Amino acid sequence: MSYRLLVDVQCLQTADFERGIPRWTVNFLNAFGQLNPGVTTALFNPDLDHTEALDFLRQRLAVSSNEPSSLAQLNGHRLVYLTMSIYEPVRPLDRLLPAYVAASDIPVTAVIHDFVPHLFPDLYSYSNLDRRLNQARESLFRGADALLCNSKSTARDAVACLGASPKTVHVVGSGIDERFHPGSVPSSKLGELGVDRDFIMAVGRSDPRKQTVKLIEAYAELPKDLRAQFCLVIACRVDDHTRAVWNTKAEQLGLTPGDLIITGFVTDEMLIALYRSTALFIESSLYEGFGFPAAEAAACGAVALTTSGSSLPEVLDDPAAVFSSSDPTSWSELIEVALTDKDFRAQRLARNRDIATRHDWRLVALRADAIFEKVARGIHNR
Q: Which residue of 92, 98, 324, 332 is surrounded by the most CB atoms within 10 Å?
């Protein structure tokens, strides 16, 4: 091994750990640490909260604060710096790209998960300060030695939105946690959530990009006999206002009590139970860097559908399982087919039988390792 990796893990210093970026970070570092023991030093921000995720990493990697002393400890090693997310709300910015790294000849690399702040500023309440900070974050990493992207879609966005050189943009992909696989579920498990009949499910958030209201509308367009057989379960952390908005929309559409179940936050154990039991999983998001829920549901043996947005068609690699991002009527039509057509369902399940093999964290780690080796040797752009 010709290098040592300094990894910024500030994205793990958050209470909102179920987000895709922290999950990606933990799984990647776990796989990378198994591939290259002793190579990685995880750098945390001492000004942010300590979390269980950092304790998890400490059992597997060397962990240090992102102060200049971290560099001094590694004198004599060829170093590569990696930040796990360029858009994390870190202030001041020199915590995201430390001055002692920026002022050195250490190669700088970054993982790019998505370009939500760049592409959808009007969907969120970004202040002028937030917008300027996002632009500054982009500027910091536009000239990075290598950008590691979680999908082909994100790689295209890195060139178009960030203005990065195509030579520095690499697709390493994403993996599926090995816990997500088919299995049995005790009959009483889903009763804890009030699920007492067959169901369709989605993993949402109180985020307009997830298009949860459109999904409720699509469900309401299903024939009454299907709605009587299948309720709609939305599994996510949700605030009281958003819950009220979704329930009000359901009432306006004529849905009856029990048709829509909003679970609130669920543990991974419960999420896996839902994936294994659902008649159909639906990813309704307008845009994702990589659609973890669709991949995880399919790995657990669910029939899964996604919108046509961004990376989502890549996840399943199954054109027949994709519907238009913007047309809820097309959603309900495909949902009905997926619930009633046995051949369609069998074809989707067969297509996804090897999904965990296609999205393997070890392969992600191997691709990243090859990039870091080239960056460390100064041959990455040749």
A: 98
